[in-house]
Amino acid sequence: MILVPEASLDVVRATREATAFLRRLIQFDTTNPPGNETACSRYIAEVFEKEGIQAEVVEPTPGRGSVVARLKGSGARRPLLLLSHLDVVPAVAADWEHAPFGGEIVDGQIWGRGALDTKNLTAIWMALMLEIKRKGLPLARDVVFAATADEEMGGIWGVKWLVDNRPELLDAEFALNEGGGTAVTMGGRTMYVYQTAEKGICWTGVTARGTAGHASTPHNDNPVVHLAGVLHKVGTGQLPMHVTDTLRLFVERMAAALPSEMSQAVKMLLDPDKAEAALAVIPDRHQANTVRAMSRNTACPTVLHGSDKTNVIPQTATAQIDCRILPGQTPESLLAELRALMGLKGDPGEKIELTLDRTALATESPPDTALTKALERAIAKHDPDACLVPFLVPGGTDGRFLRPKGIICYGFCPTLPGAAEGSVHGINERVEVATMDFGVKVLWDAVTEMVL
Q: Quick check: 296 and 238 in contact, CB under 8 A?
């Protein structure tokens, strides 16, 4: 890193602008479906162009616009991509305490759909882009801003389209995106997670076959009963453990940060025979379930269909299972694990058939790079007693389209402990202005270290 006096941040101005940007971004109803992100993208482009930053709105189909802007560097190093998405999940206004698309500030919190996912990150990136431009920093690499469409419905009209059709716009060495930054408190220590990996999709269909008949005369070849039996095994069992690079470093860093007794328990997370006992030490059940999902492929039955009539035993019954696979695993290895869990042996006369309905491989970035070191130093500066640990997100982000292209991608939008009270995708989504201030400061330090 080159130390440049001009790189000091005007925190008050940047936080004020990021907060104002977030409020305005929330006011664009970009509920997906249908998305309608173009108007929001044009607003961002106008903000940038007024400050002398060229921006392009890319609209592959009407209404589905993404915006990309670039601050040119010397080219000594490859670009850094600052990524976020503009679309949001639906919100029912009657369920909210404040209008989901109002962007109101109430008791120091900014309310609205997208306040945490991820218009907050978009707003921070906007403020940092403006600060870098105004200061005329001598950039060693380009800084690329991209706020995209369609992440919530698969990225087809957003990052995936850009990667497939305009790859030069997103070409970078490193990318910072959503999917990390949450503060986790355990044993009196605060740990911020940075997302280095995400699971792949392996949606699986299950068909149970039997003998059709009238429900008034039950028999022992009912496909609904066959299906219920194997789904019970899936719902109450677990697939085998697999230790990824991210999981190992996650455990090692957590263990190093915690008091001795908790440290020993956390280390047991890497032992298949002791992992469940270790998970019991984690007081937050959601956190425990998330850590469990980091350690193995998962299978969750979600959709069922039997007969169309109550008085008819159908010839077939079907289900869909949402399976997620770890880095290094394949759809074929997942099916083998699933068959074993169900007790299937592949005999010709078996009543159960599995099919792959949708697949996408998991992705993982190296958990220890120059960018992760920059994030670590930024956190140490602004929360000296905290530490940084890698994290595998059980779901997915647009980072899955970047990693196969050789872009090292991390999810990191730092959030103060206890700040994310309004849940992502839930009702009353909101973010504290203090968290916006914290995010601006941490990300400014990390970004400028990487680009100067």
A: yes
